[in-house]
Amino acid sequence: MTKRIVVTGGAGYIGSHVCVELLASGRDILIIDNFSNSHPEAIARIEEIGERNVEVLEADLADASQANSIVERVKAFRADGAIHLAGLKAVGESVVQPARYYQTNIGSALTLLQALEAAGAKSLVFSSSATVYGELNDNPVTEEGRTGATNPYGRTKLYIEEILKDVASADGAWGIVNLRYFNPVGAHSSGRIGEDPNDIPNNLFPFIAQVAVGRREKLSIFGNDYPTRDGTGVRDYIHVVDLAKGHVAALDYLDKDNRGAIDVNLGAGKGYSVLESVAAFKRASNRDIPYEIAPRREGDIAEIYADASKAKKLFGWTAEKDIDAMCADHWRWQRENPEGYRS
Ligand code: WQD
């Protein structure tokens, strides 16, 4: 069993939920995080929920001058696998700063590969994204769908998937799973960990949550003239705890000596529109969610949701929590932590 796991970006929104599920599965963790978009308090909350300590290395995988110390620490930790979540992830920012995104996201992946190679730890789960599909496929989208990211952030995910496939082709000892996330939302039922964006949220759910708690005046709905059932964008929202359990399922799959590199969707397999999401959050929070219709956002697509049958077939994993659970858990986190970890 991959018992000793490096989790890059482990203090982040998805990373913290992955760490909680890894501890619950009996694994030991070394978190590598530079806290550029996360908070050290999240580590304390992970240990509180998991009732066990984790090791932490504050480091920037994208900083070449830190590579040697990262390699040494991963070897000293006696890692036998890794989950790689660290990276820049703002689509709009990536359009404005493409070189920074390529250097950071691809550089971080290459440094992690160097460390894992040195430790002889050849099991890796990579945080990829449904954004690699663009708007090129009919829904539900399968892993065999055409890929073609429409922004530098999405292209970093695509290129890292290809790098990992080349690594697995060159050395059959590697077992790699590229997890293509759809839209993670929600929070752990304890209300102690959750999404805590650094500044104005780019994503729908954290923005809605901040409107509900009174931190934002109203939601701007980016377009209601899409060819969807109510004109607003449709996405496959997946509870972040279901997503986190999918990572443990991927490691368990690799533990069965499955080698090579595969792509696997992690989605609920159904879509909700923006208006449906607002209505669900109102039900969960019993708060009004004022909104206005605004122009479409550059780069947005109308509708995408997953065919999640491959994860079911290979991992025995399916998303279990519905949109009302996602909203209730997201709201609990936001209500109990109105300023995120800073509160
Ligand atoms: C969802 C829907 C918007 C905000 C992005 C990244 C993707 C992944 C997940 C990292 C869309 C609408 C949103 C708002 C709105 N991130 N919306 N008002 O764009 O599907 O995916 O996050 O991997 O890479 O692209 O998610 O939450 O931004 O938008 O109307 O203030 O909500 O138009 O229809 P998206 P999102």
Keywords:
single chain; 343 residues; alpha/beta; Rossmann fold; seven-stranded parallel sheet; two-stranded parallel ribbon; 13 strands; binds UDP-4-deoxy-4-formamido-beta-L-arabinopyranose
Describe the structure in brief.
The protein has 343 residues and is an alpha/beta fold. 40% of the residues lie in helices and 17% in strands. The site of UDP-4-deoxy-4-formamido-beta-L-arabinopyranose has 18 residues, from α7 and β8.
Written overview of the protein:
By secondary structure, this protein is α/β, with parallel strands linked by helices. It has a domain at 4-185 and 237-267: Rossmann fold, CATH 3.40.50.720. The chain contains 11 helices and 13 strands. It has a 7-stranded parallel beta sheet with strand order 3-2-1-4-5-6-11, with helices on both faces. α2 (41-50) links the parallel β2 (28-33) and β3 (55-58). It is globular. The site of UDP-4-deoxy-4-formamido-beta-L-arabinopyranose has 18 residues, from α7 and β8.
